[in-house]
Amino acid sequence: MFLHLDQVDIVGHQTFWGSNEYYDAAEAVDKHIGLVLAALKKAKIFEQTLVMLAADHGGYGNDHGDFSMSNMLVPVVFSGPCVRQNHTIATTINSLDVAPTALQSLGLSAGKYMRGDVITEIFEC
Q: Where are the beta strands (DSSP E) in 4-64?
């Protein structure tokens, strides 16, 4: 399952990254994620479902589009089978790392021309 919850991005472009409206949008998205997780638990598939939460890009001001580190660094949260519990990722994660990590979790290899690295330290099996 892939979900794109773009409220935070839209508000960030309208009112600037880090504004009160931006944080309100993040709180609303957090509630939506809670509903998805509750549905997975109700369906009794939460324990065997890998959940990866990631932003599509970092932020500053109300713009993006370049390859500066402030645009590329993203927060990520993982939960599920083979994910190390209560672990803080020590390496810097950027948006290019999300797709190769998702592919690896599905047993697939990243494409020949994909950039980014698999976030291997999060997995314990």
A: 51-54
Q: Which residues touch 51 (CB under 8 Å, ≥6 apart)?
A: 37, 40, 77, 78, 79, 80
Model confidence pTM above 0.85: no
Adjacent-strand bridge partners of 52:
78
- Greater model confidence, 91 or 38: 38
**HSE (CB half, 13 Å, CA atoms) of 111?**
5
Q: What is the CA radius of gyration of the chain?
A: 15
Distances (CA, A) of 48 to 79, 88, 113: 10, 21, 30
- The structure tokens listed for 49 are 């479902």
**Are the CB atoms for 93 and 78 separated by under 8 Å?**
no
From the list 111, 119, 30, the residue with the least C-alpha distance to 78 is: 119
Query: What's the confidence (pLDDT) of residue 119?
Result: 94
Phi, psi of 27 (to 5 degrees): -65, -40
